[in-house]
Amino acid sequence: MKVTTPAPTRWPVITKDPAHLAVIPNLVDYDRTYATFRWADEQRTLAGLADGRVNIAHEAVDRHARGDRAGRDALRFVRADGSVRAVSFAQLADETDRFASVLRRLGVQRGERVFSLLGRAPALYTTALGTLKHGAVFCPLFSAFGPEPVCQRLELGSGSVLVTTRSLYLKRVADERGRLHALRHVLLVDADGAPEPDTLDFAALIAEAPPYGRIAAMDAEDMALLHFTSGTTGRPKGAVHVHGAVTAHSATGRYALDLHPDDIYWCTADPGWVTGTSYGIIAPLVHGVTTVVDEEEMEPERWYGILAEQHVTVWYTAPTALRMLMKAGADRAREHDLSSLRFVASVGEPLNPEVVVWGLEAFGLPVHDNWWQTETGGIMISNYAAMDIRPGSMGRPLPGIQAAIVARDQTGSPVVRGGAAELVTDPDVVGELALEPGWPSMFRGYLDEDERYRRCFVGGWYLTGDLARRDADGWYWFVGRGDDVIKSAGHLIGPFEVESCLLEHEAVAEAGVIGVPDDVAGEVVKAFIELKPGYEASDALQRELIGFARKRLGTAVAPRRLEFVAALPKTRSGKILRRLLKARELGLPEGDTSTLEAGR
Ligand code: AMP
Fold this sequence. Notes:
The protein is α/β, with parallel strands linked by helices. The chain folds into 4 domains: 1-52 and 244-401, Rossmann fold (3-Layer(aba) Sandwich), CATH 3.40.50.12780; 55-61 and 86-216, Rossmann fold (3-Layer(aba) Sandwich); 402-435 and 449-481, Luciferase, domain 3, CATH 2.30.38.10; 486-586, GMP Synthetase, Chain A, domain 3. The chain has 19 helices and 29 strands. Helix 3 packs across helix 5 (122-133). The longest helix has 17 residues, at 89-105. It is globular and about 70 Å long. It binds adenosine monophosphate. Residues 64-447 form the AMP-dependent synthetase/ligase domain. Residues 497-575 form the AMP-binding enzyme C-terminal domain. This is acetate--CoA ligase. Keywords: Acetylation, ATP-binding, Ligase, Nucleotide-binding.
């Protein structure tokens, strides 16, 4: 199947003159760096441990704490009232040592999983990095998840320790504790000396912790991070990442985010998702830069205030947030002194060309889109500080990354001949975006699901599940998802999880869930419901079902819209045809999946 989408001409290329940039970019000559880059050289920029061992926390914290950056702010937490709590690299080393020591005292072994269910608070960073120091595995959960997604992930990941707040524990976990057989310890960060039954006081444990001693020396292939992500069918998938991934965090921080030693960096991603770990914690700390953390939710005035008052130089954010700022108007940005800002990047969902160009109006800087996913562990395709921007394009592959477009047949399957995937060589032909395996932050498995992992690799390539095209000059353009997964406000949502929850309601016979376009969130979740005999469609039932889903799944995952239908479209074998639901919703001809795929 060949779907050709000509490059948009409405948006002129934004040209850059490196001589006029605020600092000399780390990547000035893309072609040269791409041709000469070697992962082994990047690895040599890291400190490492004796005998070729490694620990992400050593690269991110301890080596700076022992060097000339010890007194520099590693993290700056902006509280609700605007006041700031700064934590230096030396203090962060001490806090994380203490948490590692707490884990040892609790009998947590290497490789065991420590989960967090927290907002952007200091305890999150202590937990993540202290866990890595001890050689245990860190797994963040999204605090807007309801009890079902939280407990399902704790169960699938065999979480032994959970660090959370009193309120999140009581609302999401306490009632389900009985089913969480592996969960031995729950630590409440706001216990204030009076933890709930069967929980411990995080702050008290940290205060009493003895010195940890030597950081765990890990093999580069040892598991460090577990990130749950959603597929079209089945349960959430736990993507396994290793300590050696830090080489990719370092390289992408250098080239895609253009981090320099004196930067003040702000990543707005929620810590419950992979960006919040790879680029909210690890990459900036590895580069020894100061990271700003906003403890509150997004609000335009607050965000502009933070950019100005914290003198943020590099800002990594997301299309939904940028669209919200754009709605508030560029004048709001211009009322603040944003002169420190020199580089703006975005990730997680398609970035409209309008927003890229709006950056020029609001900040005097374009927005640099980049692309990656939970499985890749780090940025794979990016627009670079010194490189011209083609608005709407995700950019070009990172040095060290081989990307390609794999041809798809009529059924949407990758074309493989003689064991090798057929690569699209013509420009602007849509196929599946693929990456050559072997980069350090590539996921090493889906937890306990070897077959699902193996299916991601076809004919020598890792298939990303995204449809894309490459133009004649090597720039990549996102076209759409190759599957039914929904991206709402940057969060990946598996339709199956939502359908399964709705099916638990007594009135629901069948449920089909899709993403429908939304101006700000990109997509929102919509459910189509077939009722059981004896139930009547009504506004009250619609509200009840949405409320039912919210309670179990949380507001970020539950459907925002819900429609009753007489019958859901199905295949002969009884599988719900979500694509048809989507085509109908968008008013497209029913068999026309190519238009569907091209539609963003
Ligand atoms: P996640 O694994 O939750 O980080 O989601 C990864 C998915 O988000 C990708 O497979 C894409 O579908 C989407 N995505 C990430 N970055 C971009 C981007 N720059 N443009 C379009 N889609 C993106």
